[in-house]
Amino acid sequence: MRKTHVKIMSTVIIWDLLLILQIEFTRSAILKASKVMTNPTMLKIHLFFAIGSVILYILMVLSGRKLLSGDISVRPRHKKLGWTTLIFRIMTLVTSYWAVAK
User: Where are the bilayer-spanning segments (predicted)?
Assistant: First the structure.
């Protein structure tokens, strides 16, 4: 079960980071976001969740590696980070629509 979890989550994280890069390189999302001020408050909220998601991914990988090396004391933290990361990713998706709504 653990190996399956690691493979699935590694794939999901890599896929999501590649999606972020693809959006930036094909749509210049950061440049457009800095110019579009349709809803600046919602854009700031969106950026909070988007940047937070990437930071949480890093923390998830670090705590996951500790867990895999046998440090089971990190399990509760890893689980909390996982749920928090999921919430942040969902909120990133939701706020991406609100940030550009007219």
Answer: 42-60, 81-100
Judged by DSSP in three states, 70 sits in: coil
Where residue 28 falls (left for φ over 0; alpha for ψ -120 to 50; beta otherwise) is left
Q: Total structural domains in the chain?
A: 1
Torsion of CA 69, 13, 4, 79, to 10 degrees: 60
Q: What is the model's pTM?
A: 0.82
Q: What is the pLDDT of residues 61-86, one digit of tens each?
A: 999 999 999 999 999 999 999 999 99
Report CA 98 to chain centroid distance, whole Å. 18
What 8-state DSSP symbol labels residue 69?
T
Boundaries of domain holding 7: 2-100
pLDDT tier at 102, thresholds 50, 70, 90: low
Tell me the CA distances in angstroms from 39 to 23, 50, 102, one per residue in order: 20, 16, 8
